[in-house]
């Protein structure tokens, strides 16, 4: 059975994923092809085309198209909850009750049009909608590989109406325990405070998390934003998750927080510095998210976790590595799997895997995220020949060794190999690498290319054999989705990848999933004595991760980077440039 999963239901992060007989053979985000971060208000045309072409599947052979957004019946609580809570904006309330599947119909029209554009037979190929949070849940549970009864957690901004999902998986089936509905959304409040702190919603949440350790969570009490009685939450919509006239506005732009919030906390933050009181607000917000999430996990998932200890998690908030650290620290959690594409891009995988299992099939465990396009050395040479900057390139043998040599001399290295990663993290195929023991390397990367806020942490990729000693845990961490406390001895050895609070967000690398990258780190270990490399994504600030060799060259020549390795070639800038 061939199932194509498509996402983009909520006007951001469209993506495509293709399953052939239960195996995930290709997946990619649309933003990488369009070169436009989050590809807002776009359908996943290029990504779907890539999945089909890469797998050698004709559009006419697709059996099912799965989509992570479904109709919600008026007989369920979702729309009534929404209508009741949005009383202050009556047009929204009434729309939820009388025309509550408007967005579903718009999505369906868009996807049917896309299927047609792709050459899929729209008469014969069923379009199967899957509830948004069920798709997130499936992307976590069905890809976790967990065999025992597994608790499932989903937290995002919102899907159709649901914002939070508690359930479990057993024998390949997912059961819902409880959902919370818009506007009562933890992800929504975190997003609103992200905006208040001067970052973009659905993008800057990482920055708030990165800022939080610099502040004191107890200086300001933000608990009035979200009341939690242990079973559900109630967001104060006069402050956050705000719509209509209550919204704070700046130059025609409406925000998801209110004028009242600004009156309470002071003006919206501007600039790149971390300063009072905003760092303390970030710290309080992070703590509020963690405390309430843990309370709800205990209420709805505690019993299952005490039984088997297995938890899986998806939805945008699943990328909050500090929350995940606290979840792993719970005495009854043995293993947490977070879908590496936890935000909406991952719902393409989720919708497809859900439909497969619903039809009696099974899906394989996710072993890696290298699911995007790949290019041969000849393609990279071709790209060099055609590039206006006329790069000089040389062919290398012993690529990992030479790469490690460049890094060991204190240089940032642009590193391009194999299939592009699916999900927001570069995991050694589209990365900028540096020596984490080399003082000032993080700053050098920032000044040569990233130009990102200097207080944001860089992360390590660590050899599996050394991970336990450095991170003081044997918990798996292949995708940079968790933070762990770095052992004191190692804090001094790899200071460039240890955050303000003494944690690191690691990718533990094993030889089976990325042998060339593994070898590179082994060589670096020989040269510098550290079994780890600093790894940040291959892109400039504000642009999506690099996809093709031409993208890599454009980025390279648009930055001060000096070294680029693409497959088996090295591109160096001459000293004049
Ligand atoms: Fe979502």
Characterize the structure shown:
This protein starts with a strand and ends in a 5-residue tail after the last strand. It is α/β, with parallel strands linked by helices. Helix content is about 35%, strand content about 20%. The site of fe (ii) ion has 7 residues, from helix 6.
Strand content: 15-25%
Cofactors and ligands present? fe (ii) ion
Give a short account of the largest sheet.
8 strands, mixed
Count, helices: 19
Helix content: 25-40%
Summary, kept brief:
By secondary structure, the protein is an alpha/beta fold. The longest helix is centred in the middle third of the chain and has 31 residues, at 278-308.
Secondary-structure topology with pairs:
Layout: E1 2-7, E2 15-20, E3 23-29, H1 30-34, H2 45-55, E4 64-67, H3 77-85, H4 90-98, H5 102-118, E5 127-129, H6 132-144, E6 150-155, E7 162-170, E8 173-181, H7 186-196, H8 205-211, E9 226-228, E10 233-235, E11 247-250, E12 253-258, H9 259-265, H10 278-308, E13 310-314, H11 321-329, E14 335-338, H12 347-358, H13 377-386, E15 393-395, H14 399-408, E16 413-416, E17 430-434, H15 441-450, E18 459-463, H16 464-471, E19 484-485, H17 488-493, E20 503-504, E21 507-509, H18 515-528, E22 532-537, H19 549-557, E23 563-566, E24 569-572
Parallel strand pairs: 1-4, 4-5, 6-13, 13-14, 16-23, 18-21
Antiparallel strand pairs: 1-2, 2-3, 6-7, 7-8, 9-10, 11-12, 15-24, 16-17, 17-22, 18-22, 19-20, 23-24
Helix pairs in contact: 3-4, 6-12, 7-10, 10-11, 14-18
The chain binds fe (ii) ion.
């Amino acid at each position: 059975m061939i199932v194509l999963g498509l996402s983009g239901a909520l006007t951001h992060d469209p993506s495509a994923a293709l399953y052939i007989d239960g195996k995930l053979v290709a997946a990619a985000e649309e933003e990488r092809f369009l070169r436009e971060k989050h590809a807002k208000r776009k359908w996943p045309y290029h990504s779907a085309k890539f999945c089909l072409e890469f797998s050698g599947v004709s559009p006419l052979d697709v059996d099912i198209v799965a989509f992570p957004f479904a109709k919600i019946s008026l007989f369920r609580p979702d729309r009534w909850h929404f209508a009741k809570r949005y009383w202050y904006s009556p047009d929204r309330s009434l729309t939820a009750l009388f025309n509550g599947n408007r967005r579903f119909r718009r999505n369906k029209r868009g996807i049917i049009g896309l299927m047609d554009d792709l050459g899929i037979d729209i008469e014969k190929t069923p379009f199967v909608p899957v509830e948004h949070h069920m798709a997130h849940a499936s992307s976590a549970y069905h890809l976790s590989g967990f065999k025992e009864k597994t608790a499932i957690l989903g937290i995002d901004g919102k899907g159709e109406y649901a914002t939070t999902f508690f359930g479990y998986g057993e024998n390949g089936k997912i059961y819902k325990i409880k959902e919370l509905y818009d506007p009562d959304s933890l992800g929504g409040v975190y997003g609103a405070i992200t905006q208040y702190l001067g970052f973009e919603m659905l993008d800057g949440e990482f920055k708030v998390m990165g800022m939080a350790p610099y502040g004191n969570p107890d200086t300001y009490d933000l608990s009035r934003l979200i009341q939690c009685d242990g079973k559900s939450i109630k967001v104060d919509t006069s402050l956050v998750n705000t719509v209509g006239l209550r919204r704070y506005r700046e130059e025609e732009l409406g925000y998801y927080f209110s004028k009242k919030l600004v009156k309470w906390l002071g003006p919206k933050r501007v600039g790149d510095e971390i300063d009072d009181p905003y760092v303390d607000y970030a710290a309080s917000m992070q703590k509020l998210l963690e405390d309430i999430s843990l309370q709800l996990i205990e209420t709805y998932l505690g019993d299952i976790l005490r039984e088997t200890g297995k938890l899986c998690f998806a939805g945008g908030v699943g990328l909050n590595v500090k929350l995940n650290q606290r979840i792993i620290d719970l005495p009854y959690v043995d293993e947490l799997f977070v879908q590496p594409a936890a935000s909406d891009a991952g719902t393409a995988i989720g919708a497809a895997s859900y439909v497969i299992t619903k039809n009696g099939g099974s899906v394989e465990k996710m072993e890696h995220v290298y699911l995007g396009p790949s290019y041969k050395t000849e393609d990279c040479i071709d790209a060099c020949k055609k590039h206006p900057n006329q790069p000089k390139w040389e062919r290398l043998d012993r690529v990992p060794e030479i790469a490690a040599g460049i890094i060991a001399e204190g240089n940032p290295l642009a590193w391009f190999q194999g299939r592009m990663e699916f999900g927001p993290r570069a995991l050694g195929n589209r990365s900028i690498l540096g020596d984490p023991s080399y003082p000032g390397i993080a700053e050098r990367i920032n000044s040569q290319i990233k130009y990102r806020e200097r207080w944001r942490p860089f992360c390590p990729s660590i050899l599996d054999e050394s991970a336990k000693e450095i991170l003081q845990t044997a918990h798996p961490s292949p995708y940079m989705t968790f933070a762990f406390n770095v052992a004191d001895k190692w804090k001094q050895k790899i200071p460039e990848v240890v955050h303000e609070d003494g944690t690191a967000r690691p990718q533990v690398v094993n030889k089976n999933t990325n042998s060339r990258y593994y070898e590179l780190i082994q060589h670096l270990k020989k040269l510098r004595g550290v079994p780890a490399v600093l790894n940040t994504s291959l892109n400039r600030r504000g642009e999506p991760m690099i996809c093709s060799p031409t993208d890599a060259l454009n980025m390279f020549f648009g930055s001060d980077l000096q070294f680029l390795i693409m497959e088996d070639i090295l591109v160096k800038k001459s000293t004049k440039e």
